[in-house]
Design brief:
18% strand, 3 helices, globular
């Protein structure tokens, strides 16, 4: 996050597998810590789900905690049209 802020990143893209898929409570707590880490980012966070992210947490729980859609979506950022694919 410090490097992205220093660089002046237009966006931070997370490609998933943010947790180790242990159990619901551990994964939820780790996901909340992950999200809190990115609260200091100046750039918006965009992400997709990894298979570990949805082993014990629902797509909706992920979306609520991380703040990005749990379905596929797209955004126009910095002159680019980015597609974030979240297959079911």
């Amino acid at each position: 996050v410090r490097a992205a802020n220093k660089f002046g990143a237009a966006v931070i893209i997370d490609i998933g597998d943010r947790v180790s898929a242990r159990d619901h409570d551990t994964d939820r707590d780790n996901m909340k810590r992950y999200r809190a880490h990115f609260n200091a980012a100046a750039a918006p966070l965009e992400s997709v789900l990894g298979n570990h992210d949805v082993k014990h947490l629902t797509r909706e729980e992920n979306a609520h905690i991380v703040g990005t859609p749990s379905v596929s979506y797209s955004r126009d950022i910095g002159g680019f049209h980015l597609v974030f694919w979240n297959p079911k």
